[in-house]
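Researcher: Here's my situation. A collaborator sent me these components and asked whether they could plausibly form a single complex. I don't have experimental data yet, so a predicted model of the whole assembly would be a useful starting point for our discussion.
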Amino acid sequence: MLKFNFSTKETTKNTAIIIAVSDKGKIGNISQKLDKKISASISKTINMASNFSGKKKQSLLIPAPFDIGADFIILFGVGDKIANMSPYDIEILGGSLFKKLKANKIKQAEFIIDDIIDADKQAEFAAHIAYGALLASYDFDKYKTKNSKKVKIEYLNFVLADAKEAKKHFDMLQKIASGVFFARDLVTEPANIIYPESFAKIVKKELTPLGIKVQILTEKQMEKLGMGALLAVGKGSARPPRMAIMHYNALSKSAKNKEPIAFVGKGVTFDTGGISLKPSAGMDKMKWDMGGAAAVVGAMKALASRKAKVNVVAIVGLAENMPSSKATRPGDVVKSMSGKTIEILNTDAEGRLVLADALCYVQEKFKPKVIVDLATLTGAIIVALGHEYAGVFTNDNKIAEQLYTAGEEVGEKIWHMPLCKSWDKAIDSPIADIQNITNSTVGAGSATAAAFLQRFVDDGVKWAHIDIAGMAWADREIPTVPKGGSGYGVRLLDNFVRKYFEK
Ligand code: BES
Ligand code: MN
Ligand code: ZN
């Protein structure tokens, strides 16, 4: 287990000491271990190094020049003005340093936060370096039966004047990370482990102790509520659908009745396409078709853990999309909870069916002012935005702007996509109220999916739909997101709430 410590004193023995270097090779002079002679020797090394000058993103590992109670010194560049580094930049730096330690099999290290960093920024700097390292440390190896040869970093110590403040700040960030890790775990688990019932159970077990009220709807209860759209998706599976409702209200007594903000997540625990079966190549990826639901429950965990002062409700629609003799057929017509009928022309356009009933339920029961849904909804969003941005569709431009800003700050970027009347028209069905796909000449697959969802949003409700199909799984890593389930959306939602809803 990786342990973080914040202290005003350096430890006697460590594998590596890590120190910041500003532009033009300047190092600080706070460290208790690095006396004048050693500092001079480090400065000389920096001057001699051809590819290290203290610029941002540079780092240099050198064997410790004298016996200073460490085998290595790692120098990392912070550029000329660390004031210009955003918290996210600092996290990326922390993640990169973590990877550097791992690559060099260094299990214990000590970061010296000295006067290269302005005194009033040191605590925040240390906390976000640690947060970046923590996010980088995620590793899903529970199904490996042999002890892996991977290096596990054990201990990171941060030495700075205001260690107390740094620890306080890090404790809060660690709570957000616990939500990110919860989401990553859920996304990475295979579909024989995570299916609607087990997903719901885990959510209840994890979130109830945090003061979140969790309610699970069974198939029977959903039938009573008339959720024909969601139920149609789960019909072909031996594993029955569920809906999980999570409510966290930390507002003061006088504000308690204020309408909640609502999160809705697509939780298709495996998407074969149903009778409109997907090709077999890459179908394993569809175990993460519950990435929207994972993000939503991860965000709930983050918010409740850090005791955010908000009223927030989250709904995830859970179903497994399988082909069988009981499965929904292309052409079937079903009635959704809203009363609207849907002609299901393609059983692989199932996420929108799940969301339709979840959206209807949350509006009827909670009357939210704002709804944000997250879903791995369309392959088309990957064509448009790749794996850099999620796409947001919304009836309220201000929310798009807020989500954009919230996302930029935490490195979970989103891009505003359009809604349009003609796409809404394109989902009119000849025999029912709505059809779940358009004819192939329309194009704009992500936008027509959003148009479908909008049919289930009541007038006057602010709503944003975020298509995260390109973001839920990382095939390429970045320092704070190792390959695999990314937990995308947790930090975005947490920051969105913090900036715009928390009092
Ligand atoms: N879960 C998929 C979307 C998806 C694709 C997510 C690739 C992640 C990676 C969704 O249910 C789906 O199958 N969408 C279809 C819609 C089509 C049938 C209108 C798609 O995108 O092809
Ligand atoms: Mn599908
Ligand atoms: Zn799907």
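Model: Some features of this prediction you could bring to your collaborator: The pocket of zinc ion (ligand 3) is lined by residues 268, 271, 289, 350-351 (CB under 6 Å). The CA atoms of residues 193 and 199 lie 9 Å apart.
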